[in-house]
Amino acid sequence: MMSLPDESEISLSGRTAQTDWIIGIAIMIVSLSCAVAYYLILSTIYKDKELFRMASYKFMFFLGVFDVCQCFPHFVTGIFTVNQSVFHPLLAKAMGVIATPCYVTFTLLTIFLSFNRFIQLSSSNLEMFFFGGKRWMIWIVIACSIWILFVSALSSPWATIRYIPDWYSWGYDTDLPFSKYVQKVEMCIEIGGIFVSAFFYLLIIHKLLKTKKQYLISKSYNAEIKVLIQATVITVYCTVLNVLWHNYTWILPPHLWSYTALNFMWICNSAVHPIIYFIVNKWVYRNKFSQFLYYFQSDSTQNWNKAIWNCSRSCFSIRTETENGKSDTYRSYPCLC
């Protein structure tokens, strides 16, 4: 990913024993917090059978799985940072084998999700053709196949990406013959993929603007705007992260704290989704909080809250009108996370 300076420059970097502890503990706290928040979201989606029947939510679930898996190696690198040791080269290599392939697969699933969103709004026939029945599994298999390829490449003795405690960041081992090729492929997928996602979301915005003129929508339009706000924030964040990670010399100075900032951006990538989910989709934390209160309420109150919850989580509808002004049909759309 990044080409770090020679270790002889460390004495000029500003790193101290105190910063080792501060950065290491911060890495562990942030990565653990991201994992817990993500678990709440994934468990909510998985347990809701009505939502999990939809291809979009299946993509979101698997995307989240690969995203949250990155939290484990990040947490371990916090321990590396505090101790200023990777303990064993194979342990450092193993963390790279987990982290990088998961992020590459996360990027691919982001592309697939944006494509699914566009097709869903464009044509029900195309949606059935690409994602109907069990066809959504083909896309998951494609993403998992790429994951296996990266895992195999980074597990081999010819390519390695490892965490460097001295610099609070990651770097490919350029002494190995195929590290640079793995890095180039990763860069193409991550940078190219995020722009493909942005392209699909621009098409979705265009589609929604046309939809606003054709349908009497208020609640549904606002719900789709919330989805676009979430998608825009995530896409912009990932674009900045991916471009700077692979081309940081364009803007950032070759300094310890530049590498540290980029590493925290990667870690916090797992926080962007939960934060946006909780802000845009109140039903997520409402569900968890209501489950907690459920055990402390009377039977009548429990039934009332259950009715409110079933109402609040229902899909929103778009009402279309015929030429004579009468209501024609209703089409339901889920408010995607």
UniProtKB/TrEMBL annotation:
Q: What are the protein's UniProt keywords?
A: Membrane, Transmembrane, Transmembrane helix
Matches recorded under Pfam families: 7TM_GPCR_Srt
- Superkingdom of source: Eukaryota
Listed InterPro entries: 7TM_GPCR_serpentine_rcpt_Srt
Please give the start and end residues of each transmembrane region: 21-41, 61-82, 94-115, 136-161, 181-204, 225-245, 257-280
The protein depicted here goes by the name CRE-SRT-62 protein
Organism annotation:
Caenorhabditis remanei (Caenorhabditis vulgaris)
